Amino acid sequence: MSAREDVLNQVRAALGGSGVGTTAAGRVGTAPAAVAVPRAYRAAGEHGPGSAQVLTQLVDRLVDYKAHVRQVPADDLPTAIGEILADAGSVVVPPGLDDAWLGATGDAVVVHRDDPGAPLSALDLDAIGAVLTAARVSCSETGTIVLDGEPDQGRRAISLVPDVHVCVVLADQVVETIPEAVRVLAAHPERPQTWISGPSATSDIELDRVEGVHGPRTLHVVLVT
User: Fold this and answer.
1) Alpha carbon 152 to chain centroid distance?
2) What are phi and psi of 153, to 5 degrees?
3) Tens-place pLDDT, residues 133-181
C-alpha cells in the first residue's frame, strides 16, 4: 500500500467509512457510505457584513500586515485611485473593471486592459507599474481579501506580477469570519481564487523580511464606505 492510499484510508476511517478504496493493484473496493461531517466550528461572527466593527477590524489587520489603506465614500473613489496611481506610470486593469474608477488617473498613467482573447504576457505585466482590481469578499478576522476571477478582478496573473496592487473593497463585501467568506465563494466554486493577506512577503531563518517575492511588493486597499 502506498503512502497516499494509507492517508486516504485513514481519512475514510475517520469519516466513518470502511477505509477500503482503490488498491495499488488497481482493484476497487466498496466505497464508504456517505456520512454527516460535524461542523461544530463557529460559522459566523458577532457582527454583520459591512458593520463598523468588521471594517475597523479589517483596517487594523491590513495595517498590521503593512498594507496601505484608504477609506473613502463612493464619490471619492476615482480621486483616491488617481492619487495612488499618480507615480505608477502604467496600470493594468481587468476587462470588466468600471471605467469610472479611472476617471482621475490623468494622461500620465497609461492604462492597459487585459483582454481575455489576447491576454498580456508575463513579460508585458512585469513592465507595468501597477494593477487595479475589485474584490469578491474580504474577511476582517484574518485581514484577508479574496479575488475569484470575476470580470472586474481578472486573471490571477495580473494581480501577481505587477509590483503594486491597488484593490478596491466595498464595505458590504467585508465579513467577519472565514466560514462566511467561504459561503460567498461557494456560489462559484469553479472560479480560481487568490487569497491576499497584505503585500507579498517572506522571511528567512533569521526572520529577515523580504517583500515582493511571490507577488506585489506594495498593496493599497481602497475601502469604499
Assistant:
1) 13
2) -120, -30
3) 999 999 999 999 999 999 999 999 999 999 999 999 999 999 999 999 9
Residues 5 and 66 in one domain: no
Is residue 59 one of the residues assigned to a domain?
Answer: yes
Residue 200 lies in a domain: yes
Strand, helix or coil at 164?
strand
Q: What pLDDT sits at residue 29?
A: 54
* Residue 77 shares a structural domain with residue 187: yes
pLDDT of residue 33: 61
**Which CA distances in Å does 11 have to 1, 6, 19, 20?**
15, 9, 8, 11
Q: How far lies 114's CA from each of 85, 92, 154, 218, in Å?
A: 17, 7, 8, 21
DSSP code at position 101: G
CATH number of the domain residue 81 falls in: 3.40.50.10420
Residues in the chain where the model's pLDDT stays below 50 = 19-27
Question: What is the reported pLDDT for 42?
Answer: 84
78 forms beta bridges with: none
Q: Which domain holds residue 13?
A: 1-38
